[in-house]
Amino acid sequence: TMSATATMLRSTADRTDRDLIEVLHRYAADPTAWPMAPRFSPFGRWSAKLGGTDTYEVWLRTWMPGQGTDPHHHDLETTAFVVVSGVLTELVGPRSADGHPDDGHASAHPATLCSGDVRVLRPGLSHQIHNRHADLAVSVHVQTRGPATGTDVPAVRPAQLTTAGTQRNRD
Q: What is the rounded CA–CA span in Å between residue 154 and residue 147?
């Protein structure tokens, strides 16, 4: 039945979320085990792959004050991240029903994320991450590999998010 299918899909998504969060906590718990130390660049965000499997990849990312992403979504992948140090702001908003980026009229919901805070973003949503604070920030990200891409770097598409008082910063 339709209800049983919806319950199964929710159960699968909840299990995926728990799995991703477990991976995040494992990597974030011991920065001394990372294969490299975080680096910071005034010319753009720095990223390095920490590990992965057939089903997910783990990335280390750094954020200097004022650095951030453009609005984007991760096609068929679920992505999650944890703030290891510093403070980040994430804006999240829906995409249009046809799967294309929203036309900018969607309301975005900003969230201030501190050390230890975890966010999970499922397919169908767009997001944007910024360091709007004076301190450096470090985050660990895990992404499932989408069945449509099967690539080392999941396909990312631009999107448009708007919120009052939010400025689109570029790398």
A: 10
- The secondary structure of residue 31, as a DSSP letter, is G
Q: What is the rounded CA–CA span in Å between residue 161 and residue 106?
A: 7
Return the exposure string of 53-91: e unless at least 16 CB atoms fall within 10 Å of the residue's CB, then b. Answer: eeebbbbbbbbbeebbbebbbbeebbbbbbbbbbbbbbb
Average pLDDT for 109-124: 88
Angle at 79 between CA 74 and CA 81, to 5 degrees: 130
Which H or E run contains 8? helix 2-28
Question: DSSP class of residue 13?
Answer: H
Q: Which of 11-20, 21-30, 90-99, 146-155 has the lowest mean pLDDT?
A: 146-155
